[in-house]
């Protein structure tokens, strides 16, 4: 294969040929990540006529925007914590099985599918199950006289916490299971030979090693929930309890016209939050990789 070389100095050559397979990926990143991000950043500092302004950022301090931000933070933090704790326990049970176990392989495969099972399909599944005329709602009402639907909690912030946990838990399983796999049997054997009990091993060896990986996975789950939109858009038709729904209102509302650039400012706010979270995730990931390989 022919390669193009460029001289960046005496004795330095750069081969372009090996980088050619990356071009489709780089094009994808440019079109679907770089360009939208730049559009949001530029739009957040422009008015309707394209003139520079900081007025859009002032909208971020309004009561509605702060309430939506608080709702997003509460939703993301609660579902990340629920997903991290339950997912870590499930991951431990899975990793405790033999690597050749069909149950282990099947559970990891199902977790990989359920972690991506979001959006409209997930919202419809929950509505069909515990909605006002859902299968489980009707069954509980007929058999026990119980009203699990109540006052419509499914279509508010509590319902989003429950539904989001559905894909947060399996995501934690596939992210955190490799950390358990990274615990070497020799470490436990060494601890036992030195007279350590099972509790001592987990307290002084395993948990300190797993803590950075756990916190990193927790941050990843937080970012995953913070950026989710489609499921909430289907479940919540009135009000804007979280930032993504407020962005939808700003961009598509036929009542509040000229708010598209406010939507850009809200999106910029989300980008800043997610960037901070992912920087923390990568710091913890690098720390974990030094031990759990």
UniProtKB/TrEMBL annotation:
Keyword set, alphabetical order: Cell membrane, Membrane, Transmembrane, Transmembrane helix, Transport
Subcellular localization(s) per the UniProt record: Cell membrane
GO biological process: transmembrane transport
UniProt topology in membrane: Multi-pass membrane protein
Record's keyword annotation contains Lipid biosynthesis: no
Gene3D superfamilies: MetI-like
GO CC annotation terms, alphabetical: plasma membrane
Limits of the ABC transmembrane type-1 domain: 69-285
Transmembrane segments: 20-45, 73-95, 107-128, 148-167, 213-236, 262-284
Highest rank taxon of the organism: Bacteria
Membership in a protein family: Belongs to the binding-protein-dependent transport system permease family. CysTW subfamily.
Protein name: ABC transporter permease subunit
Organism this protein belongs to: Nocardioides ganghwensis
